[in-house]
Design goal:
The chain is α/β, with parallel strands linked by helices and 273 residues long. It has two domains: 123 residues, Rossmann fold (3-Layer(aba) Sandwich); 130 residues, Rossmann fold. It is built from eleven helices and twelve strands. The protein has a six-stranded mixed β-sheet with strand order 2-1-3-5-6-4, sandwiched between helices. It has a six-stranded parallel β-sheet with strand order 9-8-7-10-11-12, with helices on both faces. Strand 11, helix 8 and strand 12 form a beta-alpha-beta unit. Helix 5 packs across helix 6 and helix 5 crosses helix 9. The longest helix has 12 residues. The radius of gyration is 19 Å and the shape is globular. The structure holds NADP nicotinamide-adenine-dinucleotide phosphate. NADP nicotinamide-adenine-dinucleotide phosphate binds next to helix 6 and helix 9.
Length: 273
């Protein structure tokens, strides 16, 4: 139940009907018994900036931002966190004291989803060079990863990303798996309706971790292949759940937990394979 004092937030996207964020934040609002609501907010790209300012005028605490608005959100903020600057994108807006502040929690959420994996333990290989790759590569580098190699269908995009990131970032045509501590798929390959990712995991060391940020289905062919080889494998759902925590805390004043109950609520909404 909400009252006239309810705290409001939501997710801006186009389309937005596929987003699991309302389910996720709704679960936390119910768990903590908050006087709050989190809504799906479908907004066309050409209306995005006006819509954000209107939400602030309406007293919203802030919003998440998803495809295709993350770069536009970056551009309209009055202030940005360091990790949003590094990512070149914003997925979390906070409205306070007449200012719009932008954060990017995707890279942080990705690292949190890896549990006790230490980014300093060895080189990482990232497949893809889009928005998610940038956030993840920046988070890995900032956490002490000794080298990140980008492998992308469009090499020029990987080269541009490497220049933007700076530091120990390489671009390669073939993934250098033999000494990799971490392999991450940040492309949409393996997603429902897309072809699977075709990659021989044979050269990976036995201690390597394989992560796929695709979470529809929960178990992608890449994850299944990694598990079949006895490698540690992490799907994209954990990243989705963890990236939501800082926004919830900023808007509603409670830092929520990622636990089995939350995982089950969201996983029930997604095809297993
Ligand atoms: N788990 C989470 O919380 C989370 C968060 C964000 C994103 N994601 C997922 O991550 C994926 C990428 O998102 P994004 O925002 O980074 O998208 P993006 O900016 O559009 O980048 C897409 C990337 O995938 C590559 N790609 C697309 N189709 C391909 C194909 N057929 N063959 C080879 N490469 C292909 C692109 O290569 P080119 O540069 O050559 O086009 C690019 O590197 C999506 O599946 C998204 O759902 C998950």
């Amino acid at each position: 139940m909400i009252t006239g004092k309810a705290k409001l937030a939501g997710v801006l996207g186009w389309p937005v009907s596929h987003s699991r964020s309302p389910l996720l934040h709704g679960h936390w609002i119910a768990t903590h018994g908050l006087d709050a609501a989190y809504l799906p907010l479908p907004v066309r790209p050409e209306r995005f900036a006006d819509a954000v300012r209107s939400l602030a005028d309406l007293g919203f605490r802030g919003a998440n931002v998803t495809i295709p608005h993350k770069e536009a959100a970056y551009a309209l903020c009055d202030a940005r966190t360091g990790r949003a600057e590094r990512a070149g994108a914003v997925n979390t807006l906070v409205f306070a004291e007449g200012r719009i502040t932008g954060d990017c929690t995707d890279g942080w959420g990705f690292l949190a989803s890896l549990g006790d994996f230490d980014p300093r333990s060895g080189p990482a290989v990232l497949l893809g060079a889009g928005g998610a790759a940038r956030a993840i590569a920046a988070a890995l580098l900032d956490a002490g990863c000794p080298r990140v190699t980008l492998v992308n269908r469009t090499p020029a995009r990987a080269e541009a990303l490497a220049r933007a990131l700076g530091g120990p970032v390489a671009v390669a045509a073939e993934p250098p798996l033999a000494d990799a501590a971490l392999l991450v798929n940040t492309t949409s390959l393996g997603m429902q309706g897309q072809p699977p990712l075709a990659l021989d995991l044979g050269p990976l060391p036995a201690r390597a971790m394989v992560a796929d940020i695709v979470y529809v289905p929960l178990e992608t062919p890449l994850l299944a292949a990694a598990r079949a080889r006895g490698l540690r494998a992490v799907g994209g759902l954990g990243m989705l759940l963890h990236q939501a925590r800082p926004g919830f805390q900023a808007w509603f004043g409670v830092l929520p937990e990622v636990d089995d109950a939350l995982h089950d609520v969201i996983a029930r909404d997604i095809p297993p394979r």
